[in-house]
Amino acid sequence: MENKSGSMNEKKVSQKHVVLTYIRDYRVMTNFKYRLITNILIPLLAILTSMLIACSKEVWVWIGVVVIIYDFYMMCEVVQDYFCFGCMCKKNAFGMHFLKTGFDGVKHFENAVLVDILVRPIRIGITVLIATMPFIEFGINIWSVFDVIMVSSIVSVGSLNIFRYMDMGMYIYLLALIVIFPAIAGSIAVLIYGGRMWFIAPVLAVVLVGVIAATYYHMMVRIRRSYFDV
Question: How far apart (Å, rounded) are the C-alpha atoms in residues 157 and 208?
Fold first, then answer.
């Protein structure tokens, strides 16, 4: 019994160490300003603005301003990666060649990439859920809110497969205007039909898991290929 309990404690400690290692690598590879603006300031701004809108009793004010806020939030969600990981998928633009010469340097970078991918749905989920709380009291279905979170997360994670090949900010901003349209259209659609069609939520959840897995695999392939000349 003592051996079993000892081995279980060792596994828990080992798992905790792995998680802390991933978080540490994410913090090392991303600067403090990026994390502060991305994970705190922009979501907080969206939440506070949403709370102010809820004070108005005009439905059309809600719809118009919420669309503008959501548009701005998704624009930031898509574009902000340029200021951290940048065009890491583009050949000879990795920008961190010193990691390849260090012991497990690239492995630490891969850990940071994975954490960044996983943080996105969590960040979007918390932001959207808190921002929509005042509107749930006025009849918005909670399943529709969940669907909006899924659609937004799919667009945020999926966009990495495009924007991490681009090294010019102007093109990124222009393309971001196009990329966020599926998020806006999808969110409007699930707000209208999500409450009636319960099966949309699990389908979107499965799609999100698939997009996360495919994006992570794509990033790993590009990092590994950066070792070889074309």
Answer: 8
Residue 230 lies in a domain: no
Provide the pLDDT for residue 8: 53
- If you average pLDDT over residues 66-83, what whole number do you get? 83
Give every CB contact of residue 208 below 8 A, 6+ residues apart in sequence: 121, 150, 153, 154, 157
Q: How confident is the model at residue 102 (pLDDT cuts 50, 70, 90)?
A: low
List CB contacts of 142: < 8 A, sequence separation 6 or more: 136
| Buried b or exposed e, range 135-153, using 16+ CB within 10 angstroms | beeeebeebbbbbbbbbbb
Phi, psi of 87 (to 5 degrees): -95, 55
Structure tokens at 59: 């439905």
Handedness of CA 56, 61, 67, 72 (dihedral sign): negative
pTM of this structure: 0.83
Q: What is the span of the domain harbouring residue 218? A: 2-225
List Cβ neighbours of 140 (8 Å cut-off, separation of 6 or more).
132, 191
Contact (CB, 8 A) for 82 and 163: yes
Q: What's residue 221's pLDDT? A: 87
Q: Which of 207, 18, 172 is nearest to 83 (CA)?
A: 172
User: What is the tally of structural domains in the chain?
Assistant: 1
CB 143 within 8 A of CB 34: no
